[in-house]
């Protein structure tokens, strides 16, 4: 079934008339096909850090819940997700069925012994980490290492992460690294990982190195800062001081990263799913330029994953809005229509 959309396509804002007969956009007109949606067209949104399929840390991956979470993403205009860590091996339909977003994933988190959530992740010795990460990346394109965890935990050393990066790149993959402490963040940047996830407590002096190396930052800003008010009321101690200091500095750090030329990606890392618009608003509130904040959840994130936007031959994804979201980012929360793989999958 041929569908048609027309309107002002972002990021350039030029008027376009697009058709899809299957999963590719074309400008070749098809007589007699009326538009299914008109307005401001945004390349299908991307949540670059989400862990669907489980309600709480440590729980097993639930296929029914996974599909429900993914549908929440779709209703929010999300056509693509990246899951840097899953509670289990996803089913074959993950990322491919017509009603769920395209998906990149890194399999289970790769973690040090004695760290991370019980029941989640794969505990790996340092000597084995490069080979294990490379095997995962060879299967799914990505691997994910948790470089640091508790306040008193030792991070993965920089030389180990460097060896992991080399092994993953040798099989054509990419490496995401969780870090929320200064030492782990420094090790990740020195190693030249592909993406730093969270990046709380990252030394701002490292941002220019990140930009030069092409290391992206997924700050999960809304998730981190929304927890701050709760943590402030907790008893004093090292863990509270670490979180309050890191979360308080995280918004300025994110804005400084964008200013330094680091590619910032929008990722929610939180439930309920389908909240990428909240992350875009948090980025803008932190001082990231609104155009850059929107790009972090759309065309820039898609390009990072190898997906073009609204152009002939590109995958047929789009979110359609009544108003220009560049003028008011709050419009992102209310898509008029969502196109996924050349199909109208949601209408307001």
TrEMBL record:
Signal peptide: none annotated. It holds the Pfam family Amidohydro_1. Residues 41-345 form the Amidohydrolase-related domain. InterPro entries: Amidohydro-rel, Metal-dep_hydrolase_composite, Metal_Hydrolase, Metallo-dep_Hydrolase. This is Imidazolonepropionase-like amidohydrolase. It comes from Saccharothrix longispora.
């Amino acid at each position: 079934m041929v569908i048609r959309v027309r309107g002002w396509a972002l990021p350039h804002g030029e008027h376009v008339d697009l058709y899809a007969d299957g999963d590719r956009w074309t400008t070749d007109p098809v007589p007699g096909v009326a538009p299914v949606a008109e307005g401001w067209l945004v390349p299908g949104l991307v949540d670059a850090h989400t862990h669907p399929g489980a309600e709480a840390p440590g729980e097993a991956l639930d296929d029914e819940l996974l599909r429900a979470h993914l549908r929440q993403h779709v209703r929010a205009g999300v056509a693509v997700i990246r899951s840097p860590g899953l509670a289990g091996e996803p089913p074959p339909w993950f990322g491919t069925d017509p009603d769920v977003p395209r998906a990149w994933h890194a399999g289970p988190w790769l973690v040090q012994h004695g760290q991370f959530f019980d029941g989640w992740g794969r505990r790996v010795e340092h000597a084995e980490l490069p080979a294990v990460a490379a095997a995962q990346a060879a299967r799914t394109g990505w691997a994910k290492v948790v470089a640091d965890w508790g306040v008193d935990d030792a991070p993965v050393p920089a030389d180990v992460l460097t060896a992991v990066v080399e092994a993953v790149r040798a099989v054509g993959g990419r490496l995401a690294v969780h870090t929320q402490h200064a030492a782990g963040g420094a090790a990740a940047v020195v190693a030249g990982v592909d993406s730093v996830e969270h990046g709380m407590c990252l030394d701002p002096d490292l941002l220019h190195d990140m930009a030069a190396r092409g290391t992206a930052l997924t700050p999960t800003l809304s998730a981190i800062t929304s927890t701050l008010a709760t943590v402030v009321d907790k008893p004093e101690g090292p863990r509270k001081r670490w979180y309050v200091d890191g979360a308080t500095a995280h918004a300025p750090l994110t804005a400084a990263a964008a200013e330094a030329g680091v590619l910032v990606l929008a990722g929610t890392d939180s439930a309920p799913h389908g909240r990428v618009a909240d992350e875009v608003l948090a980025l803008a509130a932190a001082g990231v330029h609104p155009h850059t904040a929107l790009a972090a959840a759309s065309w820039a994130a898609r390009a990072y994953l190898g997906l073009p936007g609204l152009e002939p031959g590109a995958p047929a994804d789009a979110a359609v809005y009544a108003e220009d979201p560049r003028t008011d980012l709050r419009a992102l929360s209310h898509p008029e229509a969502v196109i996924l793989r050349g199909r109208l999958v949601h209408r307001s």
